[in-house]
Amino acid sequence: MRSVSTESRFPLQAVKPLAELGLYRQRCLEATRRAGEGGIVRRQVSPVSGKRLTPWGRISGMDYGRCPETGSLFLVDMPQAERWQALLTEVSRFRQEPEGFHKRLERSRADHVHEPKVRWMEEALRFQGRSRVRLLEVTTGPSQLTPWLAFCPWLEAVETMEESALAGGTPGADGNGGPPVDAAILPESLDRSDHPVRLLTVVGQRMPRGGILFVTGLVASGYDMAVLGAKNLYLYPPDRANCFSLTGLTRILERTGFMPQEISTPGVLDLEIVRAHKQAEPGLTLSGFDRILMDSDLGTRESFQRFLQEQSLSSFARVVAKKL
Length: 324
What we know:
Blueprint: H1 18-36, E1 40-42, E2 54-59, E3 62-66, E4 73-75, E5 77-79, H2 81-96, H3 101-104, H4 106-127, E6 133-139, H5 146-150, E7 155-162, H6 163-168, E8 183-187, H7 196-205, E9 212-218, H8 223-228, E10 242-243, H9 246-255, E11 258-264, H10 270-280, H11 288-295, H12 298-310, E12 316-323
Parallel strand pairs: 6-7, 6-8, 8-9
Antiparallel strand pairs: 1-5, 2-3, 3-4, 4-10, 9-12, 11-12
Helix pairs in contact: 1-2
């Protein structure tokens, strides 16, 4: 199994500053509650294993359940499909508002998030011997990745579709309704899908055998998630309605007809995320080992972050899978 680490370094403030996350996070939580007022669908079993979810914790009064086999986390009470789709669109508009940190950091996020993602895809396709690829981007628009993809010479065509429309069976959104594609990218799409198995299945219907799937997302098996648990302010719906473990992500891909070719956790911010939480909440309880890490010098923290990458223990995952 191929695994890729990264030597790039950038501060938390450059992509998702904790100090500025609060307003956006609160609006997401309030919008999720409003969407649920129209009726909910209770998820009782893990979409990964089919086993009954066990109680894990609450995020601002909303229950998350844990898959007992893989440790993946799932928002239990989901708004109904049409309301979930509208919720994702509403939250996407929040991210486009000029006063929000997403817009202010647009250039920085392009440098540290979107451009490396495109380079990763290009390298993986070259490794697989692919060129002039027809790509399906599965996201909630407007996507900041789309403009980058539009100028990639190694792509023949790019089609962008809404993840909730694909998973929810919106008329005209059936995976068989469009031309076949050679590859697909799901940038954090599984994290916010109300039907991740269905989404992967429909995407797979557009791909021939040997097609390449790219997936990125937050993973529950990573360091900052393991340390902070339900106190991790980066875990909230709808953006993180699902938080797969690395094992869970692998299992759900295999269940839907994909074979992972590359699994990496190239995150660079695990320790900085925990440090930022500790600074925001000085009374936050950490183990003795974690306190030593938080107080260590920059070189030690960078060495430990590299260890997390190399051992697949960072909280950001990238997966390349092949359609069987």
